[in-house]
Amino acid sequence: MSCSNERIRDEIANGTKIGEARKTDPGQLSPDSLGLTPYLESESTLPPIYTNGISVSSGVLYIPDMLTFDTLIASLMNHNDSVLNVWEDGLGFTSLRRANYNLEQDETVDDLLLSMTRIPDISFETVLNTENKIRIEDTLYQVDILNSKVYTINLNNSERDTLDFARSSSSCVECNYGKVTYCDELQNDGSKVEGKKWNQFYGFYMSFGTRSTFYKKNSNGKWKRTKADEIFLWLDHYNDTRWNYRWIVDGTCPNVPWNYIPSNETKRFKKRENAKTVARTFQFFAGSGIKDAMMRYQEFCVNKFGRVHHWTVNFYDDCHNENW
Fold first, then answer.
1. Could you tell me the pTM of the whole model?
2. Sequence-distant (≥ 6) Cβ neighbours of residue 147 within 8 angstroms
3. Are the CB atoms for 185 and 12 separated by under 8 Å?
4. In the chain, at which end, N or C, are there fewer CB atoms within 10 A of the end residue's CB?
């Protein structure tokens, strides 16, 4: 992040904007004025969560191979907490996500402040236990968010290793990774919409995406994640969003073709009804995909530009993020 969690917490506590908060100019065309139809997402439109071969041992989720890890992560995306809770209960598992969900049930906890400390990709947060651990094949992974490290141990030979979140320090001006940006905007009724964009690499898992979340203050003056009648997010193509892999050598950026987010994404802005959150993961690489990619390239790179709008009722009361 461009600023520390401490500064962000101070800014929220003082009621000021956070991250890259911006409000859309009234002169900008809205998705409605462009004739775009929202993609209405609900639990019934999402695939079931994958369960084959997945078990729990000593409180840690066990995934038999990297391909199963890929499949599980994809199936977890965009489900709400209630569905994810049922899946975890069926396994006898408590995830890092569930621990944060339980904290949110405390009326003295500020959910917006808590959001600043969480892994932005909820699918990844759901496969880690409360000690940030997961086992894939014969390797135990533990994610150290504070120090941007992943510690591994091979359970067959006790061999240990440390993975960095980011593989290199890029000098590519357009290239971003390892970033989380936030925005928020007060609504006319005193509620708030928060926008989050992430571009994160955890050594064995990487993704970039965005999420809109709705909050209201409770009687304790704490921001609580609350259901909105409607909640939206929209990637407009004011700036192209694109990604690739790069192999950085001595600070030199090779001419690697970009993979563009398809322009038809502008025709599928997302909407959920009676929901706290709507999210979109644009690209992720887990397990086997990373193993293959990292043999060829050193860095997962996302173009820093790509505007995403977050709003509830009125598009012009949105907040939006410019950079990944």
1. 0.84
2. none
3. no
4. N
